[in-house]
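User: Sequence in, structure out. Go.
Assistant: Echoing your sequence, followed by the structure tokens.
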Amino acid sequence: MKIDVLVAEIGSTTTVVNAFSGIHTDNPEFIGQGQAPTTVFEGGDVRNGLNGAIKDLSKSLGVESIEYEDMFATSSAAGGLKMTVHGLVYDMTAKAAKEAALGAGAVIHKVTAGKIRRTDIKEIKEIKPNIILIAGGVDYGERDTALYNAELIAGLNLGVPVIYAGNIENKEEIKLIFEETNYKLYIVDNVYPKIDLLNIEPTRQVIQNVFEEHITNAPGMEHVKELVNEHITPTPGAVMESAKLLKSHIGDLIVIDVGGATTDLHSVTEGSEGVSRILVNPEPVAKRSVEGDLGVYVNMKNIVNLIGKEELQKDLDGIDIEEIMNNYLPIPKTSDQMKFVERLTKEAVIRATKRHAGVIRNVYGASGKSKIAEGKDLTEVKYIVGTGGALTRLPQRVEIMKYICEYNRNNEVLFPKAKAEILVDNDYIMASLGVLSKKYEEASLKLMLKSLNLKEDVKCIQG
């Protein structure tokens, strides 16, 4: 069978392939999906999982083989894109650098602010990052901290890509520091060029490019690069691309993906004017957070502990929790298993949203009480979108996401309001469409709207 495009999503536990036809027409179609376990652990080769998913797709379509014109891939296998980030002041340059890294699909293993210490050096060696990001100082401001950190990092001889996104006055000295090392240096515009101004897109783009160029940690990933005739993109970065494309068409939104290992939340919103006036530090329009302790499979026991076994048993009266935990499956089979995973998913969704969203606080000064805002403002969000296995397949997926709006009864947190509409990525293709949009933007948008059960004539949001 001949198709236009095949997109592979190589995850930490499952490899999914999505097939699309009619990409060059006004009516592109999603025609099928295949999946298989990701064969990356215990010396496995990701190609085996990929071939298994393609065979599963062939079987579901009732054909012997599949040929394709284009093949794209996204990957979060082998732990994703492992990074350390080093800035000057945490609430300024360190935070800006972290936002850029997370938005590109990275997993942040360490963030430092100020001059790196001996204990930091020891930890960086243990982490063995795939990429190191150095920032610090507004343009024409403080210079010494970034140079000091660069000198120490250069001395580690880790041989990984280093991105410098700090004070532009340091560029030439940074080049000299890394000139005769085994690092590959990338210099981009400052992530925090002026007070209260974020500029994270250039760094985000370089991180995604570096991912494809350098990251082949999962066994067999270098061969996947030979199979695809387009890009390999970090899966979370691909979801962010879909979220940004969707926002330009339908308005402010958040996208939540509860996975086996993590819960990712992407928000694309400027927030409200009222909150922006009292915001302590700037926030990016497009923001991603990844909660590495909130996966419903790998981190099942952690979520159970966060809820508390006694509380969980009350919520799931009549279900043998111990039996389910002792025989836990990646994909629930029975009704009781389904209810158990739904309760974990609900907890993961609320906790991830609380960590991502900002808050309103009261402060007291000489003139009395006043209000300040800290963190990301989600109050103008019009759509809450669920993607990933849990929020596209569980029976209570819509009710779980609705709880986000119900949770904020006292308005202390900057959550979406009750009017926000719940959408589900029914075809489970947002990550695939994010990477597809790099070449076929219009077709990707049409496919996305179909998956969300939205009409193509939804009013386009300008700007």
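User: And one key feature?
Assistant: The first helix runs from residue 46 to 61.
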